Automatic annotation (TrEMBL):
Keywords: Amino-acid transport, Cell membrane, Membrane, Transmembrane, Transmembrane helix, Transport. Belongs to the binding-protein-dependent transport system permease family. HisMQ subfamily. Pfam families: BPD_transp_1. It comes from Pseudochrobactrum asaccharolyticum. GO terms for cellular component: ATP-binding cassette (ABC) transporter complex. The complex is composed of two ATP-binding proteins (GltL), two transmembrane proteins (GltJ and GltK) and a solute-binding protein (GltI). This is Glutamate/aspartate import permease protein GltK. GO terms for biological process: amino acid transport. The chain crosses the membrane at residues 30-50, 70-94, 106-127, 154-174, 223-243, 255-276. It is a multi-pass membrane protein.
Length: 305
């Protein structure tokens, strides 16, 4: 009798303790946050009050016509190069995964070359292509020339920038897309083939939509990298954002303030792209979260039972 009473008392104590249980106060974490915020606030005040940054100059030139024109060119180059790079990268990825030895070899060669050489060197090479080939001709192999153009008339700073950025991006996107395609279970393609789908239709309707979960995050990173990589086109006299601020500080000698203008614009653009990337990732992860919810539902029913 006494044993049962003591067990009941112990049970009451355990229920009482659990009912009043509270997580411990995270004192260390709070102290760490206070220290970090204090250091960040102090650094922000130092930067804001430092006259060498020239904040009045930054404010005066932030929406300057020259800067805005350079920003427009930067965004335009990014969009065009990414569209071409993704389209060509998809073709290269499919070719590399192909059973055709010629297609796979050519794709490997392209990716090897454009990933293995610096983007800056590629841009300079395309810009000076006329040194190697003064004329670009369309001709029948070992036959007559059908039409010919002066290379300098075709390879302008704009075309050199687009070609250089797009081809370099295609090499990286090919590997990203290939990794995404390989992440899809092979049974998906086999099932599509069993339903009579061609390889191209299975890729378009079944495999690629599922691979997007693995493709979107690194593609977003590549897009952000592309925004910053466009600054390299300033070496071939392409009037992008960096070239525009350089042209201003070459006249005014306000080097740091004008560079801060470019830095702030780059940060604003990448911040917007990060938000867009997060939204796209949530869109493609909806099915995964839905499956997890469905799996959890029976377990909750059993627990309630």
């Amino acid at each position: 009798m006494s044993a049962s009473v003591s067990n009941a008392a112990a049970g009451d104590v355990e229920r009482f303790d659990v009912a009043r249980a509270r997580p411990p106060f995270p004192l260390r974490r709070v102290i760490l946050w206070v220290v970090i915020l204090g250091v960040a606030l102090d650094f922000g005040i130092i930067v804001a009050n430092n006259p060498n940054f020239g904040w009045p100059v930054v404010a005066a030139y932030f929406f300057d016509t020259t800067v805005m024109e350079g920003l427009t060119i930067t965004l335009g180059l990014t969009v065009i190069a990414m569209v071409i790079g993704v389209a060509l990268g998809l073709i290269l990825a499919i070719a590399r995964m192909s059973q055709d030895r010629l297609a796979s070899s050519l794709s490997n060669l392209f990716i090897w070359f454009f990933r293995g050489t610096p983007l800056l060197v590629q841009l300079i090479f395309w810009y000076n292509l006329s040194t190697l080939f003064p004329k670009i001709s369309l001709a029948i192999p070992f036959g007559p020339t059908l039409i010919s153009w002066n290379t300098n008339d075709i390879i302008t700073p704009l075309t050199a920038a687009i070609v250089g950025l797009a081809l370099n991006e295609a090499a990286y996107m090919a590997e990203i897309i290939r990794g995404g395609l390989l992440s899809v279970d092979k049974g998906q393609g086999e099932t599509a083939a069993a339903f009579g789908m061609t390889r191209a239709r299975a890729l378009r309707r079944v495999i690629i939509p599922q691979a997007m979960r693995s493709i979107v995050p690194p593609t977003g990173n590549q897009l952000i990298s592309m925004i910053k990589a466009t600054s390299l086109v300033s070496v071939i006299a392409m009037a992008d954002l960096l070239y525009s601020v350089q042209s201003i500080y070459n006249r005014t000698f306000e080097v740091i303030p004008m560079l801060m203008v470019a830095v702030i614009w780059y940060l604003l653009i990448t911040s917007v792209l990060n938000v867009g990337q997060s939204a796209i990732e949530r869109h493609y992860n909806r099915g995964e979260r839905g499956d997890a919810t469905k799996d959890e539902a029976p377990a909750k029913v059993q627990e309630n039972a």
